[in-house]
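Friendly challenge for the regulars: who can give me the structure tokens for this chain first? No prize, just bragging rights.
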Amino acid sequence: MHETIDIVGQGQYDYMEHVSKEPTNFMPDMTSLQGSFFILGFGGGRWPQVVNIWDCGNDGWEGWGRNLDRLNLKRRNAFYGDWWDEASQWRTGGYDRVCAGVQGSPTTAEINKKGIKGSLFINEVFSVQPGEQLSFLNAVVDKRVPVMEDYKVSPTGLWEVTTNTHEVVMVWATTVDDWTTMRKNLDTTRGLDDTGLEDERLLENHKLLSSYVVSGDTQLMTPLPGTVYGPSDWEEANEQDWYE
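First reply, four minutes later:
Bragging rights claimed.
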């Protein structure tokens, strides 16, 4: 489950910490938080927003169904109102996408086993021609993923959105330096920059996106520390550092 949450003011930090304490994280066979991120200003996209990614378990639709049942007719009489009441002070609403991974999209266990980590995450929500979601994602696995991984940009989710016929979501773990290097090399290959290295593979992947994608956005996200692929803690910093 990929959900985009509208945040009140500077509430992203408190809200993300609150999400990590969501009761289903401690309920057997219920959804668990894979990652929580806030949309990074200066990186593209609407803010203030938080993106949460929930793992419905290894049994796919059955796991999703258990969580749906929990939120349906049972919700009025057996629900953790205190958690939701507290969450409401930091959020005003959100938008959910029910996602299914293609072959080559890592599970939470695989992310953990591979040791995939990132201090910057890329959130791509694209629309393709209706009915072309799987064809596009399979092409991404075959052609785009190997190049991205060469630049230390690792996929953590390559998903078809199951609630419509045209959207895909792709999430990648990287760092500011590695993402900047890849973008610089792409523009150098396109003849728009002269500070990077030419890499025709980046141009081919750019053309791959253009051949399928009809609209959408790429957002840069800051991860909540302590998740399966997030950093161990926030980085130490002082505002005065940027004046020196």
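Residues 2-227 form a domain with the Alpha-Beta Plaits fold (CATH 3.30.70.100). The longest helix spans residues 133-150. Your move, everyone else.
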